[in-house]
Amino acid sequence: MFGLGRTEFLSNSKFVDDVDLIATCFDKTTKLRFRSIDSDETQYIKFGGARDSDEISGIRYGQMKLPGYEARNFLLWPI
Question: pTM of the full predicted structure?
């Protein structure tokens, strides 16, 4: 699932329609904390509330967990 283009990202998740929101939240918060393009640090994108969870997609309590290499893919997506 991760590493795909914007249109395929979360395609098997109930949050597929929230990809634009997630990308916007990434740009406003997570991106600002991203230390280095070479970082392998896990990144978190807060986009929803406590009821928003999809364990298979790495979403718990309205927050998506991304490995550093996947966060770099977000940096390359235009808004």
Answer: 0.75
